[in-house]
Design a protein that fits this description.
Layout (H helix, E strand, L loop, with lengths): L3 H14 L3 E2 L8 E7 L5 E7 L13
Antiparallel strand pairs: 1-2, 2-3
């Protein structure tokens, strides 16, 4: 288990590893536009959505 902040840090690490260029910071429940270069050197655009389900807060899955 972890906090929302810990998940965001892990996602940011992966994003940097794969050299994705993000227009904004990653936020829970918000679409984020990202750009990257594929294996052929062409610019690609993708959308990323982080959904963190709370473990202990209201709405947690038991």
């Amino acid at each position: 288990m972890g906090t929302e902040e810990e998940f965001i840090k892990k996602i940011n690490t992966s994003v940097q590893k794969y050299q994705l260029m993000m227009k904004d910071d990653i936020k829970n429940n918000t679409w984020l536009s990202c750009e990257y270069q594929n294996g052929h050197g062409k610019k690609q655009i993708m959308e990323l959505l982080l959904l963190v389900i709370p473990f202990e807060d209201t709405g947690a899955i038991c």
